[in-house]
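Milestone 3.1: sequence recovery, worked example.
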């Protein structure tokens, strides 16, 4: 929404809560304030430079999404979802306001039973999906096999039956099973589709992101012809005008937090903790002693000398993580601009921040841009304000039951999604196939790196090309491909963290991108 108040000479811009439509702006002091739905409306019109914001690209590399208003362009900002902007002709900078932010004082205040919470959540999610269903038109849904997308697809299918509409489920999978069976999401997708045989299913396959590929001019790193682009095209071809996505579930409806058993201990919920640790041991098929150590003692002692065993292996570590691929002199500045860690202690502040001030607005913007290329909008039932407010109101002990986390959602979805999906404990993965693809391209990737190193832009890059080279060399050699086919990421040499060689490739792509943008 844009509104010009003629008498006050003030411009107002507004963007919806979930960011179904993007909105970008630029300010050239003393000359103009300009806005457009997409960044290319500004940089291709000469109202803003297309020059990249290199540090924002490094942040996106580390955290998957840009932070807040960052667009990847140095002179262009996004108005985040759920915000309004005011700019008058006498103003030096715009005033930006968020209309809706959950109140931390309301977090954890629900006093009902777990059964009542499950019943209410089921009703709220059903209503959230129905409100976003088009009238007598096809609708598309993301379907990964996880809890969030499976629930949205199932609820959409149930609602569509009542009005005779069609639902198309969009999945991205590997071409064939690779690695441990528990990492293959296809059996979970198949189970959901068996329960809802009237859902049309369309599949695209994971595609390698390589240096020099055409990228979206509105979202640096968004691959034209990539899996998200292909899924949006399939939705449009099915006659849909919108895609329902499960974004926001991890932070709310299917909340898993971090180290919930340790949080229960800190909160003094000893009765619940004792019961759930025993149940969790049975669910995991582990001894109570092992469960106590892994689920309680280890998180409580994290960071202490008792568990300190050399260098951190976390990709988020400021030195040995993904930022190892950035020149050391820039790491501190990148960390200062990055999104703060969230959901470490499950505090009210963290739980609110996860919705309001972290990666969700940028993630919604990404999908809105991918959809806009095909005349679609994306909508997010898990981010319905009633769902968000209710999930934030639940105290931590509501999130564990009968040896399972992600409650009361699992209980709420009883009979809605298959038990194979509803009770799955392992987060499915897609990336084992990428080790094979990149291993096959290893020599070409190293040649691309050396070409970048020899260029003027490569010499000036913010990336540490030696660190990228070391990461690329960790990719399996051609002689190891049979092992990778059988074992997946477990075939990596020297107990290499799986993210490390893949992020070396992504860093090479980012460095190549920044060297080509003018």
């Amino acid at each position: 929404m844009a509104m010009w108040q003629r008498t006050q000479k003030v411009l107002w811009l507004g963007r919806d809560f979930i960011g179904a439509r993007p909105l970008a702006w630029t300010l050239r002091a003393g000359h103009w304030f300009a806005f457009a739905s997409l960044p290319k409306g500004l940089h291709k019109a000469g109202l803003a430079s297309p020059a990249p914001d290199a540090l924002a690209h490094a942040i996106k590399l580390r955290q998957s999404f840009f932070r807040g208003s960052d667009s990847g362009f140095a002179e262009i900002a996004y108005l985040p979802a759920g915000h309004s902007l005011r700019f008058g002709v006498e103003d030096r900078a715009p005033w930006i306001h968020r209309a809706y932010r959950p109140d931390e004082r309301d977090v954890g205040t629900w006093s009902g039973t777990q059964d009542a919470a499950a019943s209410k959540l089921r009703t709220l999610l059903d209503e959230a999906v129905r409100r976003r269903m088009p009238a007598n038109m096809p609708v598309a849904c993301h379907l990964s096999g996880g809890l969030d997308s499976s629930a949205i697809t199932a609820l959409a299918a149930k609602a569509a039956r009542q009005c005779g509409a069609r639902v198309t489920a969009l999945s991205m999978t590997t071409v064939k099973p690779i690695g441990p069976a528990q990492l293959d999401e296809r059996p979970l997708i198949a189970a959901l589709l068996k329960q809802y045989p009237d859902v049309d299913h369309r599949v695209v396959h994971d595609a390698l992101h390589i240096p020099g590929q055409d990228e979206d001019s509105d979202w640096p790193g968004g691959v034209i012809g990539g899996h998200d682009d292909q899924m949006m095209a399939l939705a449009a071809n099915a006659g849909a005008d919108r895609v329902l996505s499960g974004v926001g579930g991890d932070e709310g409806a299917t909340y898993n937090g971090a180290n919930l058993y340790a949080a229960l201990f800190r909160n003094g919920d000893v009765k619940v903790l004792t019961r759930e640790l025993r149940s969790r041991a049975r669910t995991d098929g582990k001894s109570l002693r092992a469960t106590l150590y892994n689920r309680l003692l280890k998180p409580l002692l994290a960071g202490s000398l008792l568990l300190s065993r050399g260098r951190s292996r976390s990709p988020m570590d400021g030195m040995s993580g993904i930022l190892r691929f950035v020149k050391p002199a820039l790491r501190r500045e990148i960390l200062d601009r990055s999104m703060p860690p969230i959901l470490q202690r499950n505090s009210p502040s963290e739980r609110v921040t996860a919705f309001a001030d972290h990666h969700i607005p940028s993630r919604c913007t990404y999908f809105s841009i991918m959809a806009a290329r095909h005349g679609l909008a994306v909508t997010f039932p898990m981010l319905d304000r009633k769902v968000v407010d209710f999930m934030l109101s639940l105290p931590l002990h509501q999130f564990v039951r009968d040896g399972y986390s992600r409650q009361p959602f699992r209980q709420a979805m009883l009979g809605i999604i298959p038990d194979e999906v509803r009770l799955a404990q392992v987060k499915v993965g897609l990336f084992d196939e990428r080790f094979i693809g990149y291993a096959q391209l290893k020599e070409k990737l190293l040649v691309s790196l050396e070409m970048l190193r020899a260029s003027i832009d490569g010499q000036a890059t913010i990336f540490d090309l030696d660190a990228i080279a070391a990461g690329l060399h960790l990719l399996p050699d051609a002689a190891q491909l049979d092992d990778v086919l059988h074992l997946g990421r477990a075939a990596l040499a020297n107990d290499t963290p799986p993210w490390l060689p893949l992020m070396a490739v992504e860093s090479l792509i980012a460095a190549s991108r920044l060297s080509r943008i003018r």
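The longest strand covers residues 167-173. Residues 114-131 form the longest helix (18 residues).
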